[in-house]
Design brief:
This is Glutamyl-tRNA(Gln) amidotransferase. With 458 residues, the chain is of the alpha/beta class. The chain has 14 helices and 13 strands. The longest helix has 26 residues. It starts with a helix and ends in an 11-residue tail after the last helix.
Length: 458
Amino acid sequence: MSAADIAKAVAGGKMSALAAIEAALARIKQHDTILNSFTDVTAERALAKARAIDADIAAGKEVGPLAGVPFAVKNLFDVAGLPTRAGSKINRDLAPAKRDATLIERLEAAGAVLVGALNMGEYAYDFTGENIHDGPSRNPHDTTRMSGGSSGGSGSAVGGALVPIALGSDTNGSIRVPSSFCGIFGLKPTYGRLSRARSFPFVASFDHLGPFARTVTDLALAYDAMQGPDAGDAACTTRGLEPTVPLLANPVSDLRIAIAGGYFQKNVFPEAVEAVSRVAKALGATQIVEVPEAARARAAAYVISTTEGASLHLDRLRKRPNDFDPAVRDRLIAGAMVPAPLVDRAQKFRRWYRAQFSEIFKSVDVLLAPATPCTAPKLGQVNFNLDGVELPVRANIGIHTQPISFIGLPVVAVPVPLEPLPIGVQIIAAPWREDIALRVAHTLERMGVVAAPAPRGF
């Protein structure tokens, strides 16, 4: 059942919240030994919350729009009573969190029920979903393949229908990549739109938190419930609530939709080309817009990511270097040695690049681009061939996502159900126009062009 269907059934007395949560816990118990998406299951907490919702309904009290809906979060979110491991070995020594992250509190205020914390790439520095401490989260359509990262457990849990909603983070593509590989919808909101309070950071100037779901309506329901200012996150907007659910069914015929050209049409496998083509054809999009210097934007994003990440982890690198994933450790050490003038140039270029997109969005409302260059690679795969060049998989999965998160644009990743594996397309909108990206995604879903396929790998 979708989150919307569960909430409607619970609020209408056709299903108890307890039954919904027991069913989710049973699915997790049955299938997560294969998917490895969860690192913690908060069963007692979830059952107690479900009973409280049922008691409120019995007493005639109002319940929220997500009443009884099970959800889970990437384990870099603070969950009261659990150490916030952020995919690492080192963080397991932290004291348990005393309070939930803001976004967990807001979802539970809307009636949703947290059922656990999810596997992820160490310290969110990953595109594969492979974790050396907890093992890889697996693709629900072929368990020999990657779930994508760094929010791999989130993608695996939703793609595997263990929960209808999950939360993840996206610094350079970590919501959009698992959405693409696992065949689900994901929303990276505008930078600063959703609070990051009480979550473990990676790159403060790029970090976004956002939802995954199997339908656009569920994605919008979760997003709307989490909106709002929060003094706990200095980057969080002071804009008021801007609900998107009431706008989903609005037509998109008035929107100016274009295809991102140049850089975004290179370094792609045939399946990525086909996915963008299907989406563009369905929307009647024929205009191609050149995005200037996107390759340089990706390079600048790397510079800022690795240096900010290194600064964050410098003390841990000095004290416990052997407790890191070696691949993560080595990239962080390299980041610590990047000359300051390069970082300064990257930041100046970032301002210029943002201005270029401001010009683009004067004549275009939506840009279409691949979410990943290919469908999910095999677990452990080291290299792939992009445009005739052998390149490392781990570093290049986010080749089309990094230039977008670099300037904090809102994106909905939509799954195109190709055979044998799904792949995602980015629906990119101007800052603060999540409503437009969600409308386009909803239209494509109603047309049957995009959909979250049923898991078939286990």
